[in-house]
């Protein structure tokens, strides 16, 4: 499996990577099958996602980004405050810190997923309100 670095975590590709097939005809046939699979998966994703979400706007991205930023801030500020205690973390403190990290991670993953959905055409993007400035 291949890995790529995205922001602060590693994502593992879950695509099958076949051994090299020497016969060019077999290679073309395999590529054709994989294209059919990718098209089918894309159509299924588009149908399901658009049924529930319909479309997203710049405001949706902004709201998710602000929520993730607040979650990251809560996580890091809590870690800073706990570090000021100069002692080992109690189980409850560690649980709270882990929870805050989980919230941030989930929101970051949701942003990445929403961006991928737009990028891949599963979800339509509508120009929302102009950015506040």
From TrEMBL:
Stretches for region Disordered: 1-22
Bias-annotated ranges (Polar residues): 1-10
Annotated protein name in UniProt: Uncharacterized protein
Source lineage: Bacteria, Pseudomonadati, Pseudomonadota, Alphaproteobacteria, Maricaulales
């Amino acid at each position: 499996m291949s890995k790529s670095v995205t922001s602060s975590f590693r994502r593992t590709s879950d695509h099958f990577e076949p051994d090299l097939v020497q016969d060019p005809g077999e290679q073309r046939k395999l590529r054709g099958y994989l294209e059919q699979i990718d098209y089918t998966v894309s159509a299924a994703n588009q149908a399901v996602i658009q049924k529930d979400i319909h479309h997203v706007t710049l405001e949706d991205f902004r709201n998710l980004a602000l929520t993730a930023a607040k979650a990251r801030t809560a996580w890091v500020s809590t870690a800073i405050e706990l570090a000021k205690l100069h002692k080992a973390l109690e189980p409850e403190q560690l649980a709270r810190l882990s929870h805050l990290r989980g919230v941030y991670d989930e929101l970051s993953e949701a942003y990445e997923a929403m961006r991928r959905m737009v990028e891949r055409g599963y979800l339509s993007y509508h120009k929302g309100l102009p950015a506040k400035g």
